[in-house]
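Need residues for this backbone.
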């Protein structure tokens, strides 16, 4: 059993009187920064000159600085730039100001775990990673709730790294929902595996394979889209609420029988073997290396594949389907 931490375990005093620089004002940056500010903490935003988000952050009442100035001013730095941009920005604009006793934080372990960022020994290095997208981190906070978060400690120089992580988790509202402790290694590897094999890669390929099978057999694309893609949300919502058993309780017995006899014919031993290979490539750094090289070569594969995926018939059919449903209309 993992140990859960809640607000009563998290003393926000560990961050009072400290200046927190939130680097980036994107999905996570804007959400975490606003929540921290409303929790009474001293937050500045670090952005690059010319950022379209600079003015937006100012309008929200923040002091905004360039990343190097914010690094200099801060006691605690939260890195909420895109993962693939962090190493360069760290090296050029943050590292010079990582003086003794400061803390640097992340919401994903990639750069620390794969050693793209190597902070000095005399600072705290920790993670507070909300388990949800930025807009939910913000919305749930304003509703008096929060999104659960993971914390992890990579380096505890001051002896208070975990206190700071818990105080920060409290500041963004996560300790209202529950916080559990992991390691940079575990968070990074499970996050990459989940998004590749199941959440993003697995789900979209599964849906497309179902859609293509029906369309190639001559069924209406609209029917194929409804059955194999659109309805997924309804099924996932039931699983989210009450596990597989709630979903199976809600669907017909015919659907439940089909689930039992057919599921293992689709996700076969071969699929499971491939998942193990995917995991190995994450663990041994092959995936990280490929992604880093891809970014260094201007994303040749990424951009080409993005174009191909955008032009798959599912996207056009989906747009049409949503236009038929009154509440999807803008
Ligand atoms: P976004 O892409 O939404 O935001 C990135 C921010 O960084 C923007 O404000 C952008 O500003 C700024 N930025 C980009 N490049 C630079 C640069 N070179 N110098 C200075 N600023 C720059 O990022 P996310 O919020 O999605 O991700 C941030 C972190 O949070 C990542 O580590 C991610 O893994 C993690 N995370 C994200 C989740 C999510 O919900 N998206 C969920 C959990 C963790 P501009 O372009 O205007 O300059
Ligand atoms: Mg991820
Ligand atoms: Mg059906």
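Answer:
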């Amino acid at each position: 059993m993992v140990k859960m931490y809640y607000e009563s375990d998290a003393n926000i005093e560990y961050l009072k009187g400290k200046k927190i620089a939130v680097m980036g004002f994107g999905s996570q940056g804007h959400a975490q920064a606003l929540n921290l500010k409303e929790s009474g903490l001293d937050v500045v935003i670090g952005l690059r000159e010319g950022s379209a988000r600079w003015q937006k952050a100012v309008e929200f009442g923040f002091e905004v600085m360039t990343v190097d100035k914010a690094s200099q001013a801060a006691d605690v730095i939260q890195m909420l730039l895109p993962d693939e941009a962090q190493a360069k920005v760290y090296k050029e604009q943050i590292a010079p100001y990582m003086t003794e006793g400061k803390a640097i934080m992340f919401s994903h372990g990639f750069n620390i775990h794969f050693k793209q960022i190597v902070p000095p020994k005399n600072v705290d290095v920790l993670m507070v990673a909300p388990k949800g997208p930025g807009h939910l981190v913000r919305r749930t906070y304003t509703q008096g709730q929060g999104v659960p978060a993971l914390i992890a400690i990579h380096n505890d120089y001051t002896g208070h790294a975990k206190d700071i992580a818990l105080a920060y988790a409290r500041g963004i509202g996560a300790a209202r929902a529950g916080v559990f402790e992991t390691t940079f290694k575990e968070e990074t590897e499970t996050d990459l595996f989940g998004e590749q094999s199941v959440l993003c890669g697995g789900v979209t390929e599964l849906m497309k394979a179902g859609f293509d099978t029906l369309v190639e057999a001559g069924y209406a694309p609209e029917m194929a889209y409804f059955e194999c893609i659109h309805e997924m949300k309804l099924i996932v919502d039931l699983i989210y609420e009450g596990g597989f058993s709630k979903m199976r309780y809600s669907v017909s017995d015919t659907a439940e029988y089909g689930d039992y006899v057919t599921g293992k014919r689709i996700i076969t031993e071969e699929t499971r073997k491939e998942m193990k290979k995917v995991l190995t490539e994450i663990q041994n750094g092959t995936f990280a290396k490929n992604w880093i090289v891809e970014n260094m070569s201007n994303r040749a594969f990424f951009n080409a594949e993005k174009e191909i995926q955008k032009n798959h018939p599912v996207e056009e059919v989906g747009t049409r389907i949503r236009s038929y449903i009154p509440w999807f209309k803008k």
